[in-house]
Request: fold
Amino acid sequence: MAHSPRGWTGARTPSAIKRVRQTERRRLINQPRRTAAKTLISKALLASSNGQSAEEVQEAVARAVSALDRAAKGGVIHANAAARRKSRLMLKVNAALGGEEQVATAKASRTTGKAAAAKQARARIAAGRATKAKGAQTAAGKARVALARSTRESSGTDVTAEDAAPAAAEKAPRAQATKAAASSAKPAAKSRTNSRAAAGESSAPAAKRSTKTSTKKT
Reply:
């Protein structure tokens, strides 16, 4: 612990000292550009409010917009900040040329909080569901629901009965054809297996004979 507090609170390392030099140089370059853009914007607003000709106002606005564009391109101000300032300048100039009063636009204050808004939304949803459910509770609503259900059921049964008869008639010949094909395929498969078994039996004695003859020769 030092006995006395340090008097120097600035940069100490070489990199920090270099950053201080860089920021000072950038400030000397960027500050005049920011000031020029602000001055040109104020001149354009004064030209529009003093009743000058439209050509003079347009020239002043063009100079201000050009200064903002140059500042944004050089990194003096952010591009979004330049766009915002240009938009506000155009709105004020158009209002002044149109004879309207320039009113400072303030941010609209929220009347209700997030929790209250969410509560109101839930209440509206519940009310809507309740009104929809009440339609079927009345006598007329119940009658309509029953009539609609009966018509759906009757139409469904009729359609299924009419469609089932031709479908069954078409399926019957197909089923018979598949059964005939299966029955004809079974004897063919049996004959193939029998022929293979016979061939295996005939080849087995031949193999045995060949082994016997080879042993006798030896």
In short: Residues 139-217 form the longest helix (79 residues).
